[in-house]
Amino acid sequence: MNPSLPIVTPRPMPNRPRLAVFKFTSCDGCQLSLLDCEDELLDLADRVEIGFFREAARLELSGCFDVALVEGSVSTPEQEQEIRNVRARSKFLICLGACASHGGIQALRHLGSAAAALRVVYANPASVAMLEKSLPASDYVKVDLELPGCPINKKQLIHVIASLLAGGRPGLDRHAQCLECKRQGVVCLVVARGMACLGPATSTGCGALCMRHDRGCFGCYGPAQGANAAALARRFGELGLEPAAIARLFRTFYSTAVEFQIGSQSA
Amino acid sequence: MTTPKADDPGVRLIKIEALARVEGEGGVRVLIRDGRVEDAQVRIFEAPRLFESILRGRGLEEPPDLTARICGICPVAYQMSACHAVEAALGVVIDPAVRLLRRLLYCGEWIESHALHVVCLHAPDFLGQESVLAMAGASPDLANCVRRFLKLKKAGNSIVHLLGGREIHPINARVGGFHRAPRKGELNVLLEPLKEALDLALELVRWVAAFDFPQFEHDYEFVALRHESEYPMNEGRLISSRGLDIAMNQFLDHFEEQQVPYSNALQCRKKATGTAYFVGPLARINLNFDHLSPTAKQIAGESGIAWPSRNPFTGIVARAVEIVHAVEVAIDLIQQYEPPARSAVPLTPRAGTGNWITEAPRGILFHQYQIDAKGLVTHALIIPPTSQNQRQIEEDLIRFAPRVLDLPQHEAEWCCEHVVRNYDPCISCATHFLKFEVQR
Description:
The structure holds two protein chains of two kinds. In chain A, 35% of the residues lie in helices and 10% in strands. By secondary structure, chain A is α/β, with parallel strands linked by helices. In chain A, helix 9 (229-238) runs parallel beside helix 11 and helix 10 packs antiparallel against helix 11. The longest helix of chain A is centred in the N-terminal third of the chain and has 13 residues, at 77-89. Helices cover 42% and strands 16% of the residues of chain B. Chain B has helices at 51-55, 63-68, 75-90, 96-126, 132-138, 140-164, 191-209, 251-254, 281-288, 294-302, 315-336, 385-400, 409-421, 427-431; strands spanning 11-16, 26-33, 36-44, 173-174, 177-178, 223-226, 237-240, 245-246, 255-258, 267-270, 352-360, 363-371, 377-383. The chains are: A alpha/beta, B alpha+beta. At the A-B interface, helix 1, helix 2 and helix 5 of A face helix 1, helix 4, helix 5 and helix 6 of B.
C-alpha cells in the first residue's frame, strides 16, 4: 500500500529465470491476464521456467523463484504465513492489482455498514477462519513492485517481465488519467458534459478506457501521483451529486488508499 | 466424512490438497474404508469475499461492475445477470439492439472461457500432461495445436475487448444498456478473425472428440434455461431433464443452498428431493440441442458422441461444440447489427425485487436484488453455477473412485482431479457468497 516503493535495481536474470504465480484472496482475473497473452504465452514459456502457477499447471517446484507474481489480498490467518513463505522464496516480488496492493474490493467490508451486516447474515461460522480486514501484501513483507489495476493491464505485465528479463528496472507511469484523455483527444467529461469522472484523481494504466466509452472513470487504477481528491469531490458536489453517491464513487477497489479516503469524506 | 486417523486399519484417503487448473482454491478428499469408497468431499478453502454484504447500500447502477469482480474468468456473466435482475426490479425494457449486443458480448465470453478450459485446463488431463505448456512442449504437433487453438481464445477475447472495452472486468455494459453502443460497421473488424475462428473451432471439436472417454454414464438431472427459439443465454424458462419447467423467478421455490462443514461454499440441491443436479454446457446441449446453430449441430452430430450425453467426461466436447455455436451466432449478430436509438434506457428508481438467471459459461447464474425507493440495494443474493454443481461433483467422485483404487496414489489423485475438472469448476465464484462471522 506504499505509494512510494523503494526503487530496487534487480540483478540481470539467469538464462532461464524461474517465475511463480501465487493467489491469495481474489477473483483470479489478474493471473488470468498472463494466460490472456495468447500471442506471447508460448514464447514467454521459452524464456522463463514456470515453477508454480496453480491455475495453469499441476507441477509445483520447491526452492526459490526469481520473480513471484502475487495476486490477491491477505485475509485469512493461513495467508499471513503464506505471504511470508512466498517472500522468503522469491528474489523479486510483484503485487498484481488492487487486491494485492490495497486489499481490493473485499476491503469494503472494513466500512461500518458491511461489518454490521455480517452479523445478520452468517449461518454457521465455525468452519471459516477469517481476518477482520483484507490487507495488502506490503503490510506483511517487502514488496518490490506493484502493478495497479482492477484488473491489471496485461501489456504492463509483459513490459515488466520483459524489463526484468533484460536486467532493466521496470518503471510505470502514475500520472492522472487526464493526460491520457488529452493525448487521445477525448473531450473532458467533467468540463464539457458535467459528468462525474474520477480521471483527475486516478492513475493512468488503462488508457482512459471508460472516457473513450462515454463513461466517467470509476477508479480501477487507484490514486494518481499527487491526486487532489478533495477538490474533485467538491466539484462533484457542485455538479449535483449527493455526498453519499460521491463517497460510493471513491469506495470501490481502492477504498483503503489515503487519497480516495480523503475524496470519500470531502463531499 | 469423519476424519479417519492415520492408523485406522483399512482406511485410505485419496487426498488432493489443492486442485490445479481450476479457478480458485479447493481440494478433494475421497475416503476409502476396507476397499469401499465411503465418501467424497470437495473442500473449498478459497477465502470468502462477502459480496452480498458489500452490495447492500450501493446504488442500483453498481451491481454489474461490483459483481464482475467475483470472477475474473466470467465477469460478463455477472454483469449480464446483474443488469437483467436490476432491470426486472425496475420494470425496465431494453432496446432490441441492446439485447443483440449483450448476446454478442456473452458469445465472446463463452468462446474465451471455453477455449481456456478446453485447451489450457482440461485437455492436458486427456493427454497425460501436467499443463498446457508441458503439452505444447511434448511434440511439434501439439505445440502447433496449442498455438492455433489459443487464437480461438483470442477471438473470443477480441469481442469482449471491442464491445466491453477490455477482456477482464469490461466497463461498457450497464443497467439499461451500454455506456456507448458501437457505430454501424464498427463491429465488422471482428468478422475476419471470427470466420477463421469458426474453422479452428470445428478443428477443436474433432480434436477433443477423438480423446478417450471412460464409460461413465449416469442418469443425471440436467438443468438449463430454455428459450422458445434460441440456444439459451440471457432469457428463458428453467427446465430439467426430469420435467421441471418453471419461470426463472421461481428458482428459489425449487432449489436451496445448504452449508456443509468442510467447505467455504454452500451447496445447492433440489428442494423437494434433496438431490444433486447438473448445470453447464453438457446440460445446455442435452436440453437445447435443437437450438444449436446449424454448423454446431452438424459437427456435434459428426463428433461420435451420442447426444444427449450422460457422460460428464464428454463435457469437453460440449464446450467445443458451444464454441462453434457462439462463433457462428456472433458472426450472425454482427452482420445484423443496427445501432440502438439510445445506448441505454434512462433509469428511474423505484422499490422492487428482481430475480434473473443467465447462462454463464459454467451454467445457470442466479441473481436477486431488492432495491428501495431511493435506488439503493437493500438485499442481494447470488447463486453461481459451481455451487450448484458441487454436490454432483462429489457424487461423481464416489462413483468413479472404485476404478482407481488399484492405481498408485499419484495416478489415483490425478484421475480424481480429472473428474472434478469435467465440470470446469470456478471456485472463486462458488465462495464469494458464503455467510460468515469475522474472527476478531
